[in-house]
């Protein structure tokens, strides 16, 4: 893996429709695209999934750029590696900043898989040729939610996730259940509740949800354990799981019955795979979460979700869910509720250079 250059691109694209949660609305998505090229002229691609503002985690596009240019890339310059998994140990000298780390690490995995002429899914240990696809409904209107659900079901999505909060939960879910009594639904609270809302959360047991995702504080494990003892609905942890150790502690404490694995949130594919392997051993279902990604991160998610423990449809929607035109070719498509796992080397998608240049905001090339 003799690296000759690392290219850092910042791009920006408007979403087709606003993505709404109680934390705010995302109308325009900014992101970081990494291109790592080796001495044979082979290039691997990764994506930094931090948002422009720190509403999901403390990271932003600007803080990620700072970490990449001032710390992470210099570490790779000074410490050549032979395998992408080695970057996890190398980057561990810097605390947190997992999305910046994952941007580089995922590009290294793509480069490595291409260099060995293997699909990334096989390199990671994947066993599936297709992965089940779910989708998120993020709106504050019941009418819009029902319309979106109808559309997504027509498109074949196998699982619907709806965003909820204390002002938009029981009646909202009741209206959806009335229309779709047997639909596989999960609810995502994005840390909107506290233990003081125990009775309100308990009431959601009425709707036979697949799970309720991250109901309590974004960094909590202990209070979720108390809540899980009081409710029937399985708790899924998202923001609380930033590392393998977080996942291990959550399972040991009984804080959740499901874990959402996001590559960017945990610092890369290596850590994501470690969490998957541990959950698979312990019988804890996992699924692959989404971050309103562009096509490169979506491609990495497809490869990760091919691992055997990903038994729940993930947030792996089609490219046209968010974008008029994505930055990869071919674009990700959902057919019969599933996405095909590429069989060509690496992530299995090419970069749409024309589109990338159209949405490019900033670029830097660092030579080795």
Mean pLDDT: 96
CATH H level of the largest domain: which superfamily? Enolase-like C-terminal domain
The residue ranges in which pLDDT falls below 50 over 5 or more consecutive positions are none
Alpha-beta content class: alpha/beta
CATH class of the largest domain, anyone? Alpha Beta
What's the N-to-C terminus distance? 12 Å
Based on CA atoms alone, the radius of gyration comes out at: 20 Å
Q: Supply the number of structural domains.
A: 2
The backbone outline, from C-alpha atoms, is globular
Spatial strand order of the main sheet: 5-6-7-8-9-10-11
SSE string = EEEHHHHEEHEHEHEHEHEHHEHEEEHE
Helix content: 25-40%
What is the CATH architecture descriptor of the largest domain? Alpha-Beta Barrel
Strand content: 15-25%
- Write the CATH fold name of the largest domain: TIM Barrel
Count the beta strands.
15
**Counting H and I runs of at least 4 residues, what is the number of helices?**
13
Biggest sheet architecture? 7 strands, parallel
List the helices and strands and how they pair.
Layout: E1 3-21, E2 24-38, E3 43-48, H1 61-78, H2 85-91, H3 98-115, H4 120-124, E4 130-132, E5 134-137, H5 142-154, E6 159-163, H6 170-179, E7 185-188, H7 198-202, E8 212-213, H8 222-230, E9 235-237, H9 244-253, E10 258-261, H10 263-266, H11 269-282, E11 286-288, H12 295-304, E12 328-329, E13 338-340, E14 350-351, H13 353-359, E15 360-367
Parallel strand pairs: 5-6, 6-7, 7-8, 8-9, 9-10, 10-11
Antiparallel strand pairs: 1-2, 1-15, 2-3, 4-13, 12-14
